Amino acid sequence: MALNDKEIKKFGSLFAKIKKDNIDYKEINNLKGQPEFSDCTNLLVEKFGSQIKNNDGKEKTRTAEIHLHEIIIEYKKEKLLGFSELKFSNLIARYNEYLQEGQNIHYFMCPIYNFESRIYEMQIDESTKIRKIAGWEKDTLYRYYDNYTPIKVQIPKIEYVMIISVGGEESERTAIAIEKRESMLNKFRICSRGDITFGGIYGYRRSENWNPTGKFDRIKYESPGMNSSNKYKLDKRKKEQFLNLMKKIGNRYPNNERYMDYFDKVIRRFASAMEKVNPNDKITDLVICIETLLVPGSGESSLRFQLHSALFLGNDDDSRRELMDVIEPFYNFRSGQVHSLEERRLHEKGKPTMKKEKAVIEIEDLTRKAILKMIFFSQENGYEDLEPKDLAKKIGEAVFDDSLKEKFAQIGKEILIN
Questions:
Q1: Tens digits of per-residue pLDDT, 161-194?
Q2: Contacts 24+ apart (CB under 8 A), 141-144
């Protein structure tokens, strides 16, 4: 709802009064006694009363006074010498947008650590976006943690935040936002390498786009020790490819009923493996992820694990033969850890024993590739209606079906983003 020229001039008179009398506009009580303030409050009720919460006339007026105070604060951020009707008109348009949509949606902010990109803002899905952190947001974090050095020293390295918008019942919004934060972090981790970590979660007092007083509430606090030199890097040129990956993942995780016990469990295990410090635990969990994806069921043999891994992850006969040898020591290591608490050597035929650091990177990349390829394969034309166990069976059929091998190889080319 736009204001006409006469209405805008009323607000101009209020700003002129504030400037002339040098009124401290940051305190609402300094404004309430001014006739110009009352005139503009009444105008807000007249123009936007149907959208302002509270049915009682007096309550609407009180709410309109608070909104008018916020409008003044927001406009003063422009630090203009005079009153600009165009700037003010644009400000009212943002306020109107907040009234129409923002009051029914709650916005949450989550700091992101170790994320490196030149993309200023990126819409991940209908309720989540990533953007650069605003200066006032970082300042508020400093104030919150001013007396807690382990957190305070992390804040300068925060470059991006995740914004989550949640509708529905107010009592459920925080839980939804927290779950969304966790599932989004899991999705990021299966798209690429890097120690990306999501911090605490904060609820805006108003909306992300209409928050003149610059306030948000702490819901989950920051944890110390979040920064890492191993950055999660997203090249601007690969933005569309990345968003396509996120969309494909979103079709299967976290809320797809058919695949809940398949992709959901595998992706959560993968994410938990990324949190572990002990390389033995990490390698074991990652091998179990591949096993669950490609050879589900009990009593599976090492040979079948090797064969399915090679068929599904290889791009040609040479790479499949190589993968048969590469994957064997990982499965053998996993068996030692699970069945006898024995630490077996990660020894590939004809090569020296792998160092743990290299082994973790190699099995992490193979697991990530297996998860992404299976997500894509489950959405291929002709395979989208298969149950998870039948998807895995198709891998075994590839022994006698070159078209399946070609399909697996083609999917591999679509998901390379590193």
A1: 999 999 888 889 999 999 999 999 999 999 999 9
A2: 141/111, 141/222, 144/218
> ∠314-318-319 over CA atoms, to 5°?
30
How do strand 201-204 and strand 197-198 relate by DSSP bridges?
Answer: unpaired
Amino acid letter for position 334: R
Instruction: Please report, as a single letter, which amino acid is at residue 274.
Output: M
- The residues, any chain, with a CB within 8 Å of residue 42's CB and separated by 6 or more, are 61, 64
pLDDT digits (tens, 9 = 90+) for 352-401: 567 888 889 999 999 999 999 999 999 999 999 999 889 999 999 999 99
Query: In this structure, what token pair is assigned to residue 22?
Result: 């040098």
* Best CA proximity match to 284, nearest among 351, 314, 347, 329: 329
Backbone angles phi, psi at 153, to 5 degrees: -75, -15
Q: What distance in Å separates the CA atoms of residue 313 and residue 290, rounded to the nearest whole number? A: 11
Tokens 């499949």 sit at which residue?
A: 320
How many residues does this entry show for the chain? Answer: 418
How far, in Å, CA of 289 to CA of 274, rounded?
Answer: 12
